[in-house]
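Good day; I would like, with your permission, to put a structural problem before you. What I wish to show you is a protein chain and, alongside it, a tokenised description of its three-dimensional fold. Here, with my thanks, is the record as I have it:
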Amino acid sequence: MANAGRGRPADRDLDLTDAVYISRETAERYKNCQLSPDDLVFCKVGTIDRIGKVPITVPICVISQNNVGVKLRRKLVHPEYALAYLTSGYALSRIRAGSKKAVQDKLVLSELRSLPFLLPPLPLQKEFARQMKEIRELEAQQSASRQRLDDLFQSMLHGAFNLNIVYWVMTLFSGDGVA
């Protein structure tokens, strides 16, 4: 079982890079802290605007007291729609405005519970999720394309620089250049 105590809500899926894994027996003791794939996780202290989704590769996730889990009613709300809505500028500004300000922001659960949540019919949410998936795929393709262009440009710069030096050295030693 993944223990998301060290996991961090990320832009989409929960980042479990530093997660600690616990036994099933230990997880049973913390049943009230368990989340399933596609449930949402909020940071409770500090970066309260970080919201992630439990990856589908993690069947059971136990969260720590520094996080807040949200179990979604799948018959009413699609996880991708919920995550997109809760990470929208509107929702995040409401979450930040309702936080307790101290040394670090602290998420106030009553404020989170009272956050207005626009809930279109499930088929529209699914269509929204499908379109978001297409957009993310296009963004990934564009990012890969930008990386290839960067690599090509660096290669051309390297080649141009090396050719310039070769030309300069050849000119210098051929007697045509000025030393």
Q: What stands out?
A: Residues 74 and 122 are 9 Å apart (CA to CA). Confidence is low (pLDDT under 50) at residues 1-10.
